Amino acid sequence: MTSAVRVHAIEIKNKPLTEGRPAHWANEQGTTFKNPWSSWRNHDWRDQLYIVFKHPIAMPSQSSSANLASVIPVHKPTWKHEGNDSQKLKATWLGHASFFVELPARRSEKDDSLTANIPSRGARILFDPIFSDYCAPIKLPSLKRITPPACSVDGLPEVDAVVISHDHYDHLDGPTITKLAASSRKPHFFAPKGNQEILKYFGVPESNCHILDWWQSRRVEVLVPVKDEPSQTVPVLFDLTCTPNQHNTGRNFMDRFRHPDTLWSSWVAREVLSEPDSASAKTVFFAGDTGYRAVLDGQDEDTVPVCEAFKQIGEHFRPIDLAMIPVGAYMPRKFMSPVHCSPKDSALLFKDLKATNGLGMHWGTFVLTTEPVMDPPMKLKEACEELGIEDGTFVCTDLGQTRLY
Ligand SMILES: [Zn+2]
């Protein structure tokens, strides 16, 4: 039996609110956006010249990347987990920022039946899926993937929710969206403000499209088959909240020169369990694409302002069981630091969240920047050591590897 998904608007408790127009709205209507923190720096025209004309030729060549890529193992994912493992949170890195997350297979708040109907699986969320060979509208050899996705779209188990962080090509991949939207599974799609039209263009029906502003939430109810009784269903629930991060958006050259009309975001998903289990509800944070602080050449990194959003998110949603955080595409720092974390930024961000576990992403798949391809996991390990993060707590995995929590 195919699972059905229902989505309800909800208000999160103690939502951080400011009076009047939200600080990230660049106009009264909330149709253009900006980063509201002193940790942000706008790229000026000199930066834009570098990014558009010089940066593409400064990147490591694809041939040297291809050699390095052979040391990032790719595993065929194992989706089925039995016994105690089915009660755990599962996260599988599929490449770049694409993560497949399955929440524990547990009875939810809404299931008040007296019979102990155990769900056959937990709710499934697919973050920023990209399965295309190129992260660009044109097939530039320099933007071809250096590692394959861990599986194909057809190789995924049934997906309930597809969550998009922003509209850059490496995070909102048209062909992948079209394929997921056309599947008989009919997942629901969640994206920050301004993305309705593009999702519609790629085939997402309005009924399955949910567009949120920062600090807005939806309750997602998935009817899944009962374990050992697949003709019956049982609801599993989770709350999904659109949360801030520091980035920008745009799919065209001219988008670089105006306030973007689509928003960027991170996301938090939390299981909804009935009492007395609600305290053990698992929470995951997906950082999307984000910077942490803006550093100019010659500046001491540790003296510049950092993005306040992550402490706020950590405070609001604690405890966060798993945080998926970008660790790659950070060089040259002068240009990339406002929008992308270095591994040390990622480790600091992880500490701000006070998350229990972390997984690295946004590396080892496309060559977007000038750091050597294998640097992010190595430098993340060094940064974690330096910042006193326990070994093995915040790591990068192989492609297709599932971590259980
Ligand atoms: Zn981006």
From TrEMBL:
GO molecular function: N-acylphosphatidylethanolamine-specific phospholipase D activity; zinc ion binding
SUPFAM superfamilies per the UniProt record, alphabetical: Metallo-hydrolase/oxidoreductase
Superkingdom, taxonomy of origin: Eukaryota
A single GO BP: N-acylphosphatidylethanolamine metabolic process
A Pfam family assignment: Lactamase_B_2
Positions bound to an N-acyl-1,2-diacyl-sn-glycero-3-phosphoethanolamine: 169, 340
GO cellular component annotations of the record: cytoplasm
All residue ranges annotated as the Metallo-beta-lactamase domain in the record: 124-363
PANTHER family: N-ACYL-PHOSPHATIDYLETHANOLAMINE-HYDROLYZING PHOSPHOLIPASE D
Name of the protein: Metallo-hydrolase/oxidoreductase
